[in-house]
Design goal:
Layout: E1 10-17, E2 19-23, E3 28-30, E4 35-36, E5 40-44, E6 51-59, E7 66-69, E8 72-74, H1 79-91, E9 95-97, E10 102-104, E11 113-120, H2 130-145, H3 152-160, E12 174-177, E13 190-194, E14 203-209, H4 218-228, H5 230-252, H6 256-275, H7 286-302, E15 307-310, E16 317-321, H8 324-337, H9 345-348, E17 349-351, H10 354-358, H11 364-368, E18 389-395, E19 402-403
Parallel strand pairs: 7-11, 17-18
Antiparallel strand pairs: 1-6, 1-19, 2-5, 3-4, 5-12, 6-11, 7-8, 9-10, 12-13, 14-16, 14-18, 15-16
Helix pairs in contact: 1-2, 2-3, 5-6
The structure holds ligand DP6.
Residues 21, 24-26, 34, 40, 131, 163-165, 218-219, 312-313 line the site of ligand DP6.
Length: 420
């Protein structure tokens, strides 16, 4: 190791997206290695709206590995963090920074400690797959700092050991996590099915649903499903393999009707598996069910799907509209039934606000003036559910992890080696 031993700090910063599964991962065949019982398929969400940013710093003056999440120090003692750190360190290679006069040999990495600071640009408590973005970003940033030379498939299999769904956040666009067959998990990796530009018409609206209930974590929930649900066994062996090939074809040919049918069916089956678990797990609530009804009724009235819905281990709805026109009509419907309670419109609809303008919604008065959706004309008077949705996020399909080279974006101070 060269350079002024006690003084230097070397850092890397990267940003990674979150993702939403359209064919769900639910159930592990190996808990330690995080190997799934079936393949899954996801879309990566635009990191401008939903992502984790992570800085990893290394210095001979650091006495132990430490991590801060959203400004608060958290423990790194968990097996999942340790597995990711170990796997990256094992692959670390020599690094030379001529400008700073730093040279780290391959064997030095074992002795050096890291400081990690990570930040989500969306509320962690909202239940929006923060662990997927977080572990993908941790692995990607560590790999960049430590000059790891592995391909993205290999990085995805390391991110997988942090959180299963994180392996799919290593790529942008459309992604498949192949369950693999090997006992050591070497072939349980994510692959990119298509770039984010492949199907850029799609628009995503997320309804963050208010909920006071503390949900069962995915990890615990899927363990209980594996132990008790016969439906999960049937789903993994019989349903998902066909569905994954059909989904790949729907994505390849940009066939929205098939994409929507498969996405909705798979979300519903995943929640049916949760109900089939003993004791049953309820992730969706009345608001989630109302949103499903709204979409189903509208899709049926159009004769062809306009929007697909999918729900993870919580009540939030992720709605994928086939184009901007459908997204504006969707937003009008959502705001008709779920108008803001106290917030103004700009803090109620976050992300890409241009869809609000296209929907002709500039003010609360515009929302109040919205007519009831025509397909629901038999349902007079129309009930409103103000307060049941905390906020909406309008977004799109986005790109994979990226290194941020501007030092101002680093979350750790190069002088103190601590979070800024
Ligand atoms: C419902 O990846 O959070 O979102 O591997 O135990 O960390 P662990 O679970 P996690 O589970 C995600 C489950 C899901 C479906 C999906 O993302 O495919």
């Amino acid at each position: 190791m060269a350079g002024d031993l006690q003084s230097w700090v070397l850092m890397a910063t990267a940003r990674s997206p979150t993702n939403i599964a359209v064919i769900k991962y639910w159930g592990k065949r190996d808990e330690e290695l995080i190997l799934p019982v079936n393949d899954s398929v996801s879309v990566t969400l635009d990191p401008d709206h939903l992502s984790a940013t992570t800085t990893v710093a290394v210095s001979p003056s650091f006495e132990q590995d430490r991590m801060w999440l959203n400004g608060k120090e958290i423990s790194l003692s968990g097996g999942r963090f340790q597995n990711c750190l170990r796997e990256i360190r094992r692959r670390a290679r020599a690094v030379e920074d001529e400008k700073k006069g730093i040279r780290i040999q391959e064997e030095d990495w074992e002795k050096l400690h890291v400081h990690i600071a990570s930040f989500n640009n969306f509320p962690t408590a909202a239940g929006l797959a923060s662990s997927a973005a977080g572990f993908a970003c941790l692995v990607f940033t560590l790999a960049k700092l430590m000059n790891v030379n592995e391909d993205y498939g290999e990085l995805s299999s390391i991110a997988r050991q942090g959180s299963g769904s994180a392996c799919r956040s290593i790529y942008g666009g459309f992604v498949k996590w192949a369950m693999g067959n090997n006992a050591n998990g070497s072939d349980s990796i994510a692959i990119q099915l298509a770039y984010e530009t492949h199907w850029s018409d799609l628009v995503i609206v997320i309804a963050v649903v208010s909920s006071k209930q503390k949900e069962t974590s995915s990890t615990t929930g899927m363990r209980e499903s594996v132990e008790t649900s016969k439906l999960l066994e049937y789903r993994a062996k019989t349903v998902v393999p066909t569905r994954v090939s059909e989904m790949e074809e729907a994505i390849r040919s940009r066939d929205f009707a098939s994409f929507a049918r498969l996405t909705c069916a798979d979300s519903n089956q995943f929640h049916a598996v949760c109900l089939d678990t003993s004791p049953p797990i309820f992730y969706m609530n009345d608001t989630s069910h109302r949103i499903i009804n709204l979409v189903e009724r509208w899709n049926r009235s159009e004769g062809t799907p306009q929007v697909a819905y999918t729900f993870d281990a919580g009540p939030n709805a992720v709605l994928i509209a086939q184009n901007r026109k459908a997204a504006t009509l969707l937003l009008q419907r959502l705001l008709f039934y779920f108008p803001p309670q106290d917030n103004d419109l700009t803090s109620y609809v976050l992300g890409d606000k241009s869809i609000l303008n296209e929907a002709g919604l500039q003010s609360l008065e515009d929302v109040e003036a919205l007519p009831p959706p025509p397909e629901n004309k038999d349902k007079v008077p129309h009930k409103k559910f103000s307060g049941d949705v905390s906020y909406f996020i309008c977004t799109r399909i986005g790109s994979g992890p990226k290194l941020l080279t501007d030092e101002n974006q680093a979350l750790i101070s190069p002088v103190s080696g601590l979070p800024k």
